[in-house]
């Protein structure tokens, strides 16, 4: 089946999968957003326990999606992995540390004898929520703004700035996406609290804070998108593979791939609907689904315009011809074929996640559940 | 060529990876084995409805959770470090190595993370049977994760199923099944996972013995011991069998590692196995053709090494010097020759790249070499050796001796692992015998031995990985890529900073983990709530 596809078709298929994983990752960052709001929304110890626990039952999905996103990127576009990870060392290391401290924070936070006290572990969660979202947003923005690296004829890469990735966080366009992701994650976190916790005060406070986070999100998101649509993009000549700058490239990609544009618009409307419903409707608990679905579609379409339609998805501003495209950075035809068969498992993975999510979230968390002796509580 | 390598960058990068891998491996084996032990216990609970079994299950599950978190935290570091610190490696082998990593994510990690949530938070929310299924699927997920990363590791030890593509300057997969089912991958997976089962069994037996010593939760402790000791004994038998298979595989695919494990400088037929050995003066530094190993103590089993390696007592086991200097009688090509051939392969690739777009005929001629099976088998096979080339024959010989792994570390790690493995199997047998005779509770010596065997299990487990990873040096990909050429070109100071950041983080995490774990153990199963 997959073996008969052309190498380019397989490269496109894998770009779609990687984009989808990236999109799901941003949605699942509601966990990170929620972690930055524990003290804003939780005013009592019990409220904070409920917040931590509702996020604590989902953090592993986000974490696993991040790991799989990385693994899938490594497997399908190894030149990106070697160039970006090996070059933008500090950005990836900071993201890494932010996730390492998250992984133990939930389990250790409420255990007796945990040495550093619950506040330390809650601070770990805060750091993860802050750095994880802003830096991943910033790193992804370099797909559009470029980085300073070269790749030699042996496909060995070298970063040309000694700041090794930290420079990405100083670029305002990158930062606008980083901050948009940060506030989006907070909006999603608030909507998730409203959905999964049965507590009047938590609900009311979360609702109130939606507007405080929704407005900055819109400001940063619109800044990023408008800037993206008017800036020069990194186009690839499909015949010579030469990379050159083309005015309005990313906007043109949207127009030339109308389905992607429609997905993008539906996504944005979804996020606005979820946000609006959360703010305006009285007992709305379902806003997370519209906003979450919208997030997936928006991020998915943005990643598609980064890699499709003869575009370099990881451009080099230092040497345009070192830029990475889905064609020059990918794995071989054989490997992409073999992995494509494995990708057929993805619908099954979604199916059991959905089933388990439903079984576990059937009844929202409440105070009684947190006092239960029979359950594992963070 | 060696003078172009920044050795301090290589060494710091290695130190960071070794630190992370060893720290990660403190937690993984317990996860692998304890997940099954919990599944056995919960199965008995569901079958019998006996609440004591539920209490037992939940106690071990709590310890599993504490251990699991830190395993996850350290696992992601390894994935990142393949790219951040070993970027040349990630490109050179990404076409093969990346695939198992992605499959691991899709197949195993999601299964593990989805069902672990049911395991911990699903009591009373889902049916008993669904909960039990989730526990089993968590165990399956954890072990599947181990499968894929071990397939990737095995490929690095014994690269098969691929072909070098000069256009992209990397190895590309040609046969997935050759990679997945290579004998190295199969034995590595079985040996590593069963070592995890043995460690977890010793952990459960040791802690339960402590309860028996303290005369607390006696029924809980005895039941836990029975389950863990049976699982441990069965796993020990498998561990020895797969260890035997693994040693034979190493003798065939990585003879230098095999020689280092036994500190065998001169090859011999009817080679004896050193059961116990203590080194005297270290060999000359740098190693040369006159080097040898002095022993203070050496107890040997005659003919055993030849038999272990090739199932024949008369078989010739090549020593370090046979491999470096060659041995015509036994048809062993010297490292010196391999270096020359590897160098030629590297020069061919370089010329190929230079001819591209300049001299089409030359370009096609050189390209054809990489498709020529004979040339690949006789020259490209030794590609990585080319990095040790020197036109001066004397220097070339000295360089050839640099392709020898650290001997004493490989030797001691191997022997510690084997001796402790024997101790573990014996301990399980004694414990089960005493359980059968209803005399375990009164035998303090065995109970204390079981308790103090917990740290030994960790030592054996770490020693196993030291044999595997130190023993294959200087290769990151056997014969194809030396570790020194695999690193990312970053400042050594950056790696030094992250090395120390990791060290501080790991020490802090280890202290917290141990203190939390000890407290939970002391609380015992009765106070097994979240307090």
Report what the structure shows.
Chain A: It holds the Pfam family Cyt_bd_oxida_II. The complex is a heterodimer of chains A (378) and B (531). Chain A is mainly alpha-helical and 378 residues long. Chain A has one domain. In chain A, 69% of the residues lie in helices and 4% in strands. Chain A contains 16 helices and four strands. Chain A has helices at residues 7-28, 30-35, 38-41, 45-56, 59-76, 78-87, 89-109, 118-145, 172-196, 200-230, 249-256, 258-280, 287-307, 333-343, 346-360, 367-371; strands spanning 149-151, 157-159, 233-236, 243-246. In chain A, a hairpin with a 6-residue loop joins strand 3 and strand 4 (243-246). The mean pLDDT of chain A is 92. Chain B has 531 residues and is mainly α. Among the domains of chain B are: 263-325, no CATH class; 335-403, no CATH class. Helix content of chain B is 69%, strand content 6%. Chain B has 17 helices and eight strands. Chain B has helices spanning 7-48, 51-84, 87-121, 128-157, 176-180, 183-213, 218-253, 255-261, 304-310, 320-325, 335-355, 360-371, 373-378, 393-400, 407-436, 444-470, 492-523; strands spanning 162-165, 170-173, 268-269, 273-279, 295-301, 316-317, 475-477, 481-482. In chain B, the strands form four sheets. In chain B, strands 1-2 form a two-stranded antiparallel sheet. In chain B, helix 1 packs antiparallel against helix 2, helix 1 (7-48) runs antiparallel to helix 4 (128-157) and helix 1 crosses helix 16 (444-470). In chain B, 52% of the residues are buried. Residues 527-531 of chain B have low confidence and may be disordered. Chains A and B meet through helix 5, helix 6, helix 7, strand 2 and helix 14 of A and helix 2, helix 3, strand 2 and helix 17 of B.
